[in-house]
Amino acid sequence: NAGVTQTPKFQVLKTGQSMTLQCAQDMNHNSMYWYRQDPGMGLRLIYYSASEGTTDKGEVPNGYNVSRLNKREFSLRLESAAPSQTSVYFCASSERLAGTSTDTQYFGPGTRLTVL
Amino acid sequence: AQKVTQAQTEISVVEKEDVTLDCVYETRDTTYYLFWYKQPPSGELVFLIRRNSFDEQNEISGRYSWNFQKSTSSFNFTITASQVVDSAVYFCALSEAGANFGNEKLTFGTGTRLTIIP
Asked: Tens digit of pLDDT for each residue in B25-39?
């Protein structure tokens, strides 16, 4: 049981290049999320997917697109990378426990992205 | 809008000392959840605890304890007899109860970097 996995772990891009960050979870969770972590700012939500087939914008969606490929996989795409997108990106997944009204999110190991 | 404040940016203590990490939150909801996550130097985020707004009982797990006080909107985290392995960045987070599955916004504080000096 690997939990949440992310690829790649590190990536360097030039301004204007595109790339896709991959995320997969094997916990059979319905919900998945993408965050970015910047120094002094904590984690901020980019996009989330409450269930397979649905996606919604979070706090900082500009410059990103997502795809919920199936229940296991949720990818984040940068169409034209900018230096402001240099960050550490975390994927998370969550499930609602019976009798509760919120989820607990479990995070992947992160992808460190540098845009030159 | 919800907000989480971790005023302590960095803390250093000598091994075996006790240390408390502060977390103050703001929310208009009566039902909400509070979380603590640990981010060790390796970079991953590790879930530590979750509490709901109706349960103000303090919780203890080994050397870790959490003090939730609604009157002061605080959810503080204490490590007793600290160890070098406790060195990490610790994040407090807040989630409002969601009517729809998976659409809750998890708001993070900016984190406290804890360094345990051997």
From this structure: 999 888 888 999 999
